[in-house]
Amino acid sequence: xxxxxGPATGTVTCQVISTVPGASNPCGRFFAVAYSPVSRILxxxxxxxxxxxxxxxxxxxxxKALAGIGDVTYSVAFSxxxxxxxxxxxxxxxxxxxxxxxxxxxxxVATGLLVQTIHATCGSYADSVTFSHDGKSLATAGITxxxxxxxxxxxxxxxxxPYPTTVHNVHFSPDDSRLIAGGIDSRAxxxxxxxxxxxxxxxxxxxxxxxxxxxxDGTLIASTxxxxxxxxxxxxxxxxxxxxNGHAAYVTHVLWMDxxxxxxxxxxxxxxxxxxxxxxxxxxxxxxxxxxxxxxxLSPDHSRLAIGGANxxxxxxx
Length: 318
Hints:
The chain is mainly beta. Helices cover 0% and strands 50% of the residues. The protein has a four-stranded antiparallel β-sheet with strand order 1-28-27-26, with no helix packed on it.
């Protein structure tokens, strides 16, 4: 159960953070960050014993500390109306492929209380949780086992997609008709929904940090790539359109700002902005946070970029 509005303990070490551009808050190891789509709230997920999920006001004040998952929260996601926060993580030590229940939870943003537990069957930890754009479905994936899609209303499983390796990230297409997954088997895969049929395979994805997502209009896919690269794909045919060079370490995440602007971060702490001109993407800006960059989230008004790091939470103005 969540801790409600009570005082933060455990993993949460900062009562206030600075969210101004260039700010760096040494409050722990942040794997996950997400902005509410409708209110001035930021959610973070950390490594360490519960509570390891925190809700912050955008002025940096601590709102609530939620219990989260076991000893680390890897992924957080708001529902489209901002009322629910989904969290995914690791419950504790144990065999990697052993089934561990209760890795994905849904929390009330208003009260901080547990609303629902999703019984994902992804082994000993869940790496990714995300809501569909219509808010009706939730996708989960993790260390092993299937990629799963759940009905939010009652927690029923809609789709189960067998997968041979760990999946780091899953995202719905803009129209929610497809799901894309980044796996450590060096590929991204696109699946139809609700059938769960394979539609596309994109090879050459980074095997350590795997992420891929659709552009807002659904015509392109950006992914992490081998050799510290970002790749741009045709979302209809799966054709590789461009390979972007500029990172000096594993690229952790890709994040679309709009159809012509893309952000990416890496293990060296580098964040790059790529902008399309006449259909060709090139690097137009960059920042460094001085530590491994992990989770990344863009505020709805695009004024703040939150970066979860190996030992800090940083903010930039993209």
